[in-house]
Design a protein that fits this description.
single chain, alpha/beta, six-stranded mixed beta sheet, four-stranded antiparallel beta sheet, globular
Length: 258
């Protein structure tokens, strides 16, 4: 990391509750341009909720969240924050790509149209330009021969690679991955992780919620360990995974090695 790398995501005191259950309890977090940041930690600790707050799929209850220097989903007037209109939020969200656990492809559209349609509808891209970009991205993720297939005709790994192509087609500055291999059979995990490794090698800014510790060790620049709605430790990957400072981090990493 260099001082010139811009901070793409900055969270300060982010809180989120569902009813009486406070899931995020004051998250402070930063991610820099061109880096891969892996978010790890026990299930139920708030990792996925925080990721969804980054692109305003979940509204925060307190604190501030900035992406590319702009508040996510809110506008400041004086000391108060006001939620933006849905159209303006969608415009800002277009800079943030997201890959979900369950793929979220449109079942009635071919793979090619799954990658093409969001460009046309959200970015108002010319259909021929959108299709050309979609075909190039399907080639990149190894699905050129599946362009006319429907999601139900694909394996889980192929569906997730199509979802990655769809996210890339929007030309985001930031890609979020919410446990992208958790719904896959073990033999399909590596084909998705390999695509993500290739993306990391190109300098794509990525935040990845994952239980794949080998991927984090090999690809991440930084790691944040979230447990019980708080960032327990955060720092360079080698430091956090080999020399954790807190008992909670040491206990979690010991369990993951089993």
């Amino acid at each position: 990391m260099t001082a010139s790398q811009a901070i793409i995501v900055r969270a300060r005191g982010v809180r989120k509750r569902f009813g009486r259950n406070e899931v995020l309890k004051g998250i402070d977090f930063e991610a820099r341009e061109g880096e891969v940041t892996c978010i790890i930690g026990p299930s139920g600790g708030g990792k996925s909720t925080f990721l969804r707050c980054i692109n305003h799929l979940e509204k925060i209850d307190a604190g501030e969240l900035y992406v590319n220097g702009e508040l996510v989903g809110y506008r400041r007037r004086g000391d108060k924050l006001y939620e933006m209109k849905q159209r303006e939020t969608a415009r800002r969200r277009a800079q943030i790509g997201m890959v979900f656990q369950q793929f979220n492809l449109f079942p009635s559209l071919t793979v090619l149209r799954n990658v093409t349609e969001p460009q046309v509808r959200v970015k108002r891209e010319d259909p021929s330009v959108a299709q050309h970009r979609a075909e190039a991205l399907l080639e990149r993720v190894g699905l050129a021969d599946k362009r006319n297939a429907y999601p139900r005709q694909l394996s889980g790994g192929q569906q997730q690679r199509a979802a990655i192509a769809r996210a890339l087609a929007m030309e985001p500055r930031l890609l979020l991955f919410d446990e992208p291999t958790s719904a896959l059979d073990p033999e399909l995990v590596n084909e998705v992780l390999d695509v993500m490794r290739d993306l990391a090698a190109t300098g794509m800014t990525m935040i990845v919620v994952t239980h794949e510790m080998d991927f984090a060790r090999d690809v991440a620049d930084r790691v944040a360990l979230i447990d019980d709605g708080q960032v327990i430790e955060e720092g360079p990957v080698a430091e956090i995974l080999t020399m954790p400072k807190t008992d909670r981090a040491r206990a979690f990493l010991k369990r993951e090695k089993r």
